[in-house]
Specification:
Strands 15-14-13-5-6-7-8-9-10-16 form a 10-stranded mixed beta sheet. Strands 1-2 form a two-stranded antiparallel ribbon. It has a two-stranded antiparallel sheet with strand order 3-4. It is α/β, with parallel strands linked by helices and 373 residues long. Helix 3 (105-113) runs parallel beside helix 4 and helix 5 (162-170) packs across helix 7 (197-214). It starts with 7 loop residues before the first strand and ends with a strand. It is built from 13 helices and 16 strands.
């Protein structure tokens, strides 16, 4: 990518550049004053969190779903586009069954302005690379100004553009998750197929240098390292590199399989059972957890796809369980709708859908371990 952000990433989208022409004026995101994210929830957000806790408790006791408050965590999918071909990602494999696209900034604003209070945490990712969205900086700024702590997960390469990196630092982002699965080009690109290690290093350094140059503490730079069979030996080197490049912390995370076939797991999963969230039963991989854990997520969080479609969680990758459209109908109406109530009731009392078989609810220590640098 050239320093003025003029190249493209493919998948019918260009990379997020440092400015965008709105038709009336050209916004140069990397020149706007920095926005400082909130670190503590507002009183309204605390009261909303209490409502969610009460709803969870009542649902456990009565075995019927209660809907109180609004989500404390919202995941919004900016785009389905990505330049990589990761083998355990539906987008990377090219088998995402729903249409591709991206959420316009005006649609995001309409969605977020309808939420009162704003979610404490906004996660900007799902099936796609958020930084290829040309208005991602505006999305972050709007959510931060509304009172949310915004977290974005990226494969980092777009940040090799210095202006894109500076725009992200100025945007008000609270945490930037750096999805890097190795401490060398060879191991990283074994999973991040099509990636470029030199762009990764440059991208992390660019953000760290922009933070230092502006005297800012945020965004927190969190290196996320997926534990595969082929990269376990690089954990110490990854911690060393993370510190050298300017990251703040590193998270070692167990791998999520998309196929439960024995051969697929044996190809990717570490030999050490302590570093796997699955166990082999009847020649299939199954999660190491209780058979039917209570699902608290559907009472305090939700996922909005790029076109406004609301689905219950990030494990519904193809949008099989549509609960409404937040752009067309308003999020609050969808959240309190009969469709949502019936889905919560199904999760409580009936057979759960296939997507629940891969859910991380209740895994905790088998899911991720964070280390400071």
């Amino acid at each position: 990518m050239s320093e003025n952000g003029s190249d493209s990433f493919g998948h019918n989208e260009s990379s997020a550049t440092s400015s965008i022409d709105t038709g009336k004026q050209r916004i140069r995101w990397h020149e706007l004053p920095p926005v400082r994210p909130l670190t503590l929830p507002t009183l309204a957000q605390v009261l909303n969190t209490i409502k969610i806790a009460v709803a969870v408790l009542l649902s456990l006791i009565t075995r019927r779903p209660w809907t109180l408050g609004l989500p404390t965590m919202l995941m919004v999918e900016p785009t389905t586009a990505c330049q990589l071909k990761c083998p355990h990602c539906p987008t990377g494999r090219g088998d995402l069954s729903r249409p591709d696209g991206r959420m316009p900034l005006e649609n995001f604003r309409a969605l977020y302005d309808s939420l009162n209070p704003a979610p404490i945490r906004l996660q900007l990712w799902n099936q796609g690379e958020p930084l290829v969205h040309p208005e991602i900086h505006g999305i972050i700024r709007h959510a931060t100004t509304a009172g949310s702590r915004v977290v974005l997960s990226t494969n980092v390469e777009a940040l090799a553009n210095q202006r894109t990196a500076e725009a992200i630092v100025r945007s008000g982002l609270h945490t930037l998750i750096l999805s890097l699965d190795g401490a060398s080009a060879e191991s990283h690109v074994k999973y991040r197929v099509g990636g470029k290690w030199d762009r990764v290093e440059r991208g992390v350094r660019n953000v760290a240098e922009a933070k230092a140059g502006l005297g800012l503490k945020y965004p927190v730079l969190q290196w996320q390292f997926l534990l595969f069979k082929h990269n376990l030996h690089e954990r110490d080197e990854a911690m060393k590199l993370a510190k050298e490049w300017g990251a703040d912390e590193i998270v070692f995370k167990t791998v999520q399989l998309e196929s439960f076939e024995r051969e697929d797991g044996e190809q990717w999963l570490p030999d050490d059972e302590r570093l796997r969230r699955y166990v082999l039963k009847d020649n299939k991989w199954v999660l190491k957890r209780v058979e039917r854990p209570f699902c608290a997520r559907i009472y305090g969080s939700a996922v909005v796809l790029w076109d406004g479609t609301v689905v219950p969680c990030c494990f519904d990758k193809d949008g099989d369980f549509v609960l409404g459209n937040a752009i067309e109908n308003g999020f609050t109406d969808v959240w309190k709708s009969s469709e949502y109530r019936m889905f919560r009731q199904r999760i409580l009392t009936e057979e759960r859908p296939e997507m629940c078989s891969n859910c991380t609810e209740g895994l905790h220590k088998l899911y991720a371990v964070k280390k400071g640098l």
